[in-house]
Design brief:
The complex is a heterodimer of chains A (289) and B (137). Chain A is an alpha/beta fold and 289 residues long. Chain A contains five helices and twelve strands. In chain A, 16% of the residues lie in helices and 23% in strands. By secondary structure, chain B is an alpha+beta fold. The chains are: A alpha/beta (289), B alpha+beta (137).
Chain lengths: 289, 137
């Protein structure tokens, strides 16, 4: 069934394709771990469908007369042609630039972008030489994003992996619902940063606004300056030697290492008072009500 | 009631959830018959002195100076077996019995990262089939 060719699949509806590939015949219930790693798997570093790009093959893309969809489609076409370094010129605050890139790539955006820049990316190294609007790097899976100036609110919303760096200051709700990855802010961050954070690491070299880490379930926040107030269930923890080594490495990597080192950073973690994973509780609540 | 105190237990030993699959230790866990919390430390940052040659080559290929998204990958324990959570399939993938586990979590995490990476980039990953079925032609 899996040997159906792309040409055959192209002529089918989505439902027919799913059936032809045998995807509706698998019994999934009651199986939590049915896949095992193959210890002899071939060493490969890119997804099987990813185009082979070369970092040394560079081109420019002027988006002055284009829509955001056209710019993103052009980036994909250039990657198919093997370009591994793409410079986007004249973004002029365009929204949703560079989203959904699932491959290695050096993407340089010369200017500022609007909201949802480089969301859903999985692999590329992005440098934005200006400012960004709301939700830059939202749902990012892997790669690096460096914003040279300031960023708007919800910077790195729901990020799952990779490094998202802003050399300037960011707005409120930075890393809201983050589930992994690292957010690094060179300046200050606004209120409710790390709101509902579940995993990952957030490093702020400057100050943090009120309700930092409100309702966080897990993850770690490191703050170099003052914290206006901690949110519900966010507590201070001891900064270990492993934390210090990691912070030093990460901040040096992005040229954001403070002159006075990292010893003054405050580490904030979840107090785990909100861990309501208790399956008896609904019944207990019913009894009380 | 919830929201007043943490009622789970602490991880004390690297083999804790291999030797005791259920891992019920605190009073509340015993009462409800359910382990509370993760079975591994999700906040453990990697020790770069233990990185493997394969992972170094991957970093070089991607143009990264560190492990990037793999910093969040750890070896976990499900049903008394070592396993790795694959976010791309939202499920656990088992470590084969033929692989000998080191005696510390940092080295186990490096093995987990290698295996997950090879699996995600292979043709046998379920995402390959899903992509065929749902991609735009």
């Amino acid at each position: 069934m899996a040997s159906v060719s792309d040409t055959d699949l192209k002529g089918m509806t989505q439902e027919e394709r799913v059936k032809a590939l045998g995807m509706t015949t698998d019994q999934l219930t009651g199986r939590s771990m049915y896949i095992e790693f193959d210890p002899d798997a071939t060493e490969r570093f890119a997804y099987p469908w990813a185009p082979d790009v070369d970092f040394n093959k560079r081109t420019e893309l002027d988006c002055d007369e284009m829509t955001a969809t056209e710019v993103n489609a052009n980036i994909r076409s250039l990657m198919e042609e093997g370009f591994g370094s793409i410079v986007v010129k004249n973004p002029r605050g365009m929204h949703s630039l560079g989203v959904g890139i699932l491959n290695k790539l050096n993407l340089i955006i010369e200017g500022s972008t609007g909201y949802f820049a480089v969301g859903l990316i999985d692999g590329p190294n992005v440098r934005i030489n200006g400012r960004v609007g709301w939700s830059c790097g939202e749902n990012m899976m892997s790669g690096t994003v460096i914003v040279e100036k300031n960023a708007g609110s919800t910077f790195g919303a729901a990020i799952r992996g990779g490094d998202l760096v802003c050399r300037g200051s960011v707005g409120s709700r930075t890393g809201i619902d983050m589930k992994g990855g690292t957010i690094i802010v060179g300046g200050d961050t606004g209120a409710l940063s790390g709101f509902m954070m579940q995993r990952g690491r957030m490093v702020v070299c400057g100050n943090a606004g009120k309700n930092l880490g409100d309702s966080m379930y897990d993850g770690t926040i490191y703050i170099g300056g003052d914290i206006q107030s901690l949110g519900v269930d966010a507590v201070e923890a001891e900064l270990t030697d492993l934390d210090k080594a990691w912070l030093t490495r990460k901040l040096t990597q992005y040229g954001l290492m403070p002159e006075n080192g990292v010893d003054h950073f405050t580490k904030v973690v979840a107090g785990k008072q909100l861990w309501n994973y208790d399956n008896l509780e609904p019944n207990e609540k019913k009894l009380i009500l | 009631m919830a929201g007043t105190q943490y009622r789970g237990s602490e991880i004390k030993d690297v083999d804790q959830f291999i030797n005791d699959a259920q891992g019920l230790e605190s009073e509340r866990e015993k009462e409800i018959g359910q382990h509370i919390g993760y079975r591994y430390d999700v906040n453990l940052v990697p020790d770069y002195s233990r990185i493997t040659p394969f992972l170094k080559s991957y970093m070089e290929f991607m143009g990264w100076d560190d492990l990037n998204w793999l910093e969040d990958i750890h070896m976990g324990y499900e049903e008394g077996k070592p396993a790795v959570f694959d976010r791309n399939i939202n499920g656990w993938v088992r470590i084969p019995d033929s692989i000998e586990l080191p005696d510390n979590q940092q080295d186990r995490d490096m093995i987990a990262r290698e295996l997950l990476l090879k699996f995600q980039m292979s043709d046998r990953h379920p995402l390959v089939m899903l992509r065929k079925a749902y991609k735009k032609f």
